[in-house]
Design goal:
alpha+beta, Phosphatase 2c, domain 1, 6-stranded antiparallel beta sheet, 5-stranded antiparallel beta sheet, 10 helices
């Protein structure tokens, strides 16, 4: 067992005029710290391509997660999917990246652009070997993982971007590698890297993609724990136990809520400075400061804003530019939870806030529980490990 984890993110754009994407990415975690990601590119575009890629990726990821060989996967796909009447081929192209206990990566490729790997911020030429399965040439690689390794898998819509416009022969793999190499040192999440790569393809297509384009990025990094305290305990006698457990945990510490921050300040014996962190352009309440705490914010309003950003992040990720540079408490929490953290511990107090009992306010006693549940679900979809403790 090591302290490495995999940050996985992907994004697709559709062929111009098509409502469905002909590419599909499927991620399946089959053991602790073991994951298989499959990027499939269906033949053509539209509905048929979408069906082919979705079935291909789901079949392969499920079978490989259950320990079956690539030979069995390809054979099953060939027998399961209908044969294209024009091309005479029964399945889409695909790229498989299987991570075993976050220590070894197994890359299997069939007719997709080769995976780009970065090690120590530079393009790394990893070893490849070929094998023939059912008359098809499959490229296989086995790589022992290191902290900072980045893998970028893509459909052929990425290197085809810009053909006849920005580039005579498209955006070559070497140029895409340099693009990723330029962004890697900044520390973007895998999802952000994938989004930036696909957005660049969209620009090169002039906003009219001539093919579906998908990028799937896997970023290997060390685990970074984060701790978030939200609300005072229902029993006042539990304050010391709650604070002791919260501050004893490794990693950064975030406190949300006025009463909660007051309790924490008293427990630490430090003053609570509430005169800082105000962003006049934001609808989020100002932050505060306690020595020994990484971030202190207001509670319900701030957390509600964080959830709206989280739901967008696991979806279209259109609000990235806002929370990635925003100065208010919600944006700061987003950067810590979405970009920096890998393991997040929530310490949630069940105390009833008198302010929440005002019938003129659209909130109730369960609001904290609902907020934590919604945020936890969104963070799990980002690949975070979540633990919630109630007091």
């Amino acid at each position: 067992m090591n302290d490495l984890c995999a940050d996985i993110g992907y994004k697709s754009i559709n062929h111009f005029g098509e409502q469905l994407c002909g590419d599909h990415v499927e991620v399946n975690e089959f053991e602790e710290d073991s994951t298989v990601a499959v990027l499939a590119d269906g033949l053509g575009s539209g509905v048929k391509a979408s069906i082919l890629s979705t079935l291909t990726s789901k079949i392969i990821s499920t079978m490989m997660a259950n320990g079956l060989s690539i030979e069995e996967c390809v054979s099953t796909i060939a027998q399961t999917l209908p044969v294209c009447s024009v091309r005479g081929v029964a399945y889409s192209t695909f790229t498989i990246i299987r991570l075993l206990h976050n220590s070894v990566a197994e890359i299997i490729e069939y007719d997709n652009p080769s995976v780009i790997m970065l090690r120590e911020g530079k393009v790394y030429d990893y070893p490849r070997s070929e094998l023939s399965i059912g008359g098809k040439t499959i490229v296989k690689s086995v790589i022992r993982l290191r902290d900072g390794d980045i893998f970028t898998a893509m459909s052929d819509g990425c290197p085809h971007a810009g053909i006849g416009e920005a580039y005579n022969f498209g955006w070559k793999r070497e140029d895409i590698a340099k693009f990723v190499e330029m962004l890697a040192p900044i520390g973007y999440s895998a999802k952000t890297l994938a989004a930036m790569l696909v957005d660049e393809c969209y620009k090169l297509y002039g906003g009219l993609p001539g093919d579906d384009a998908t990028a799937c990025v896997i970023r290997i990094r060390k685990r970074a724990p984060m701790n978030l305290l939200f609300g005072p305990p229902s029993n006042r006698d539990d304050c010391d136990r709650m604070m002791s457990l919260f501050f004893s945990k490794q990693g950064k510490h975030i406190i949300c809520g006025g009463t909660t921050s007051t309790i924490a300040a008293n427990w630490l014996g430090k003053p609570l400075d509430v005169s800082i962190g105000y962003d006049k352009d934001s609808d989020v309440p100002p932050t505060a400061h306690i020595e020994g705490v990484d971030l202190v914010t207001e509670g319900v309003v701030t957390m509600s804003k964080v959830i709206s950003y989280a739901e967008d992040c696991v979806g279209e990720n259109r609000l990235y530019e806002k929370w990635s540079i925003g100065k208010d408490g919600a944006c700061q929490i987003c950067r810590l939870l979405f970009e920096e953290a890998t393991d997040i511990n929530f310490y949630v107090g069940r105390a009833m806030n008198p302010a929440h009992q005002n019938p003129d306010l659209p909130i109730n006693f369960n609001i904290k529980m609902n907020l934590v549940q919604e945020l936890s679900e969104a963070l799990k979809r980002m690949g975070k490990r979540i633990k919630v403790s109630y007091f």
